[in-house]
Specification:
The chain has a domain of about 100 residues. It is about 65% helix and about 0% strand. It has about 525 residues and is mainly alpha-helical. Helix 6 runs parallel beside helix 21 and helix 19 runs antiparallel to helix 20. This is Trk system potassium uptake protein. It holds the Pfam family TrkH.
């Protein structure tokens, strides 16, 4: 019995690669990358994605909506592609990823999951192009929350649920990547957090797989709790789950065009404020709250900085809304806390159009686009620990100016930070703002106005969601943008989600030369 064509093709590639590697070894040259483990893992994840499509299909069927057929067709196509990749690239024994394979896997997962995750959007009755569908899926899986879809309030339940599931799956994916892959790849100072996932002396569960499993459990429990509380506060069970999934993922996809402005119940806003805040915190601390005789979640320096950012800017905007815009203290506090938490955690929910608050609030919200939540959370942007390291570097520099012969060190959580980590953090921040500027320039070349281009670049790179201005502001969508801008923003969302260098390294000639 002959092998399927994809298996035969993979066997031919393997034989060719082995011969090429033998010649490379004899010449002392770099070996070719073995793509089989990368393709195999991608295939498994596509099978998982296909299984996830069955959920909105069932919901649409229950609500008697014809879009259930769209999810079945998309799921079968995704399943067949996943099975072909798994069967054709099954490695011998347990696959062990090299560093180059890990870089390639991380990027290819987001590209393939987005490419197949876009199918229900483009095949459904939404009548949108594949470009827009790809953008919507990328926005979901990167937990950005920017949308091109209009008319969410009358949208089929399956589509709304699929958007929430993309947020939710993207959120758990980025947490697992943050604790299992990025520390090994030493991206942007993330090697500092190898101790969070594998240091046995810290009494955290020692194996990375155990840590990831614990985080998934916490993620599921918090999602269910948020769903329950939102239901009790007045949302329907469906609305409650969709918003809970997006809140914990800091994704920002809502079931209404008005986002959370569609609900005036203060309890709903406060519940989501709390769970967005939890989504932006370090999830490892939830499974190891007690460390070295202290409550780690309260004494962790990154958590303290995170809370200080949230409280400070909430108070500033509360006072502004109360004193300048004549809001009641309770409404000013509620909407300020909600929207500050949403932007800092890069969720992207909005309870009101804050672009109408005045000049100072707009500047503050634009600045908050770059902050981000904690490392090991579902949030995007620069991240709190990098800002902490940068401020510590500035403090040490000032001390050296005053005391040229003094010896000063930079520490994080009472541990000295190596020069390699400091260099990685500095390199990441420089590249982050350079990327932001380059994409802002490219977006203006597509015909976008200055405010839309600069805030669009910032919100895409930071995985935040809304920008500023009449088009992509809190009350707008990305639907009017040209296709070129949509593809640029899609790529920028992936760049930001995967910490820049994970993707950019693939464009290096030395990467492919080994």
């Amino acid at each position: 019995m002959s092998s399927p064509p994809w298996v035969a093709g993979m066997n031919l590639w393997t034989a060719t690669r082995n011969r090429a590697n033998s010649r490379a070894d004899s010449r002392g040259e770099a070996r070719l990358i073995d793509f089989r483990p990368v393709i195999f893992v991608n295939g498994i994840l596509l099978i998982v994605l296909a299984a996830a499509m069955a959920v909105p299909a069932a919901v649409d069927w229950l609500y008697d909506d014809k879009d259930w057929q769209v999810f079945i067709v998309s799921g079968l196509f995704t399943l067949l592609a996943g099975l072909a990749m798994v069967l054709g690239a099954r490695p011998e024994g347990r696959p062990e990823l090299t560093t180059r394979q890990a870089f390639l896997l991380t990027t290819s997962v987001w590209v393939l999951m987005t490419a197949f995750g876009a199918l229900p959007f483009t095949l459904s009755g939404l009548k949108i192009s594949y470009t827009d569908a790809f953008f919507e899926a990328m926005s979901g899986l990167t937990t950005t929350g920017s949308t091109i879809i209009i008319g969410l309030d009358s949208m089929p339940h399956g589509i709304l649920l699929w958007r929430a599931l993309l947020n939710w799956m993207g959120g758990i994916g980025i947490i697992v990547m943050a604790v299992a892959i990025l520390p090994i790849l030493r991206i942007g100072g993330m090697q500092l957090f190898k101790m969070e996932s594998s240091d046995k002396t810290d009494k955290v569960k020692p194996r990375t797989s155990q840590v990831a499993g614990g985080i998934v459990m916490v993620y599921v429990v918090l999602t269910l709790l948020c769903t329950l509380f939102l239901w009790l506060a007045g949302m329907t069970p469906f609305e409650a789950f969709c918003h809970a999934a997006s809140a914990l993922a800091t994704g920002g996809f809502s079931t209404s065009d008005s986002s959370l402005g569609n609900w005036s119940n203060p309890w709903i806003h406060w519940i989501l404020t709390i769970f967005m805040g939890l989504g932006g915190a370090t999830f490892v601390l939830f499974i190891s709250p007690w460390r070295r005789g202290r409550w780690a979640i309260l004494t962790d320096s990154q958590i303290r900085w995170y809370l200080h950012f949230l409280v400070f800017f909430t108070l500033v905007l509360t006072l502004w809304q109360w004193a300048v815009n004549d809001w009641s203290p309770s409404d000013a506090l509620r909407h300020s806390a909600f929207n500050v938490t949403s932007i800092v955690t890069t969720t992207g929910f909005v309870s009101t159009d804050y672009s109408l608050w005045g000049g100072l609030p707009q500047i503050i919200f634009f600045m908050l686009t770059f902050i981000g939540g904690c490392t090991g959370s579902t949030s995007g942007a620069v991240k709190i620990f990098r800002w902490e390291v940068l401020f510590a570097m500035a403090g040490v520099h000032l001390k050296r100016l005053l005391h040229p012969h003094g010896v000063f060190v930079i520490d994080f959580n009472r541990q000295r930070i190596s020069d390699a980590v400091v260099d990685s953090v500095l390199g990441f921040v420089v590249m982050y703002f350079l990327t932001f500027a380059v994409f802002a320039l490219l977006l203006t070349m597509t015909g976008m106005d200055f405010v839309t281009a600069i805030t669009g670049s910032a919100t895409a790179l930071g995985n935040v969601g809304p920008g500023l201005g009449n088009i992509i502001g809190p009350a707008g969508t990305f639907q009017p943008l040209p296709d070129t801008a949509i593809w640029l923003l899609s790529f920028e969302m992936m760049l930001g989600r995967l910490e820049l260098f994970t993707v950019l390294v693939l464009f290096s000639r030395s990467f492919w030369r080994g």
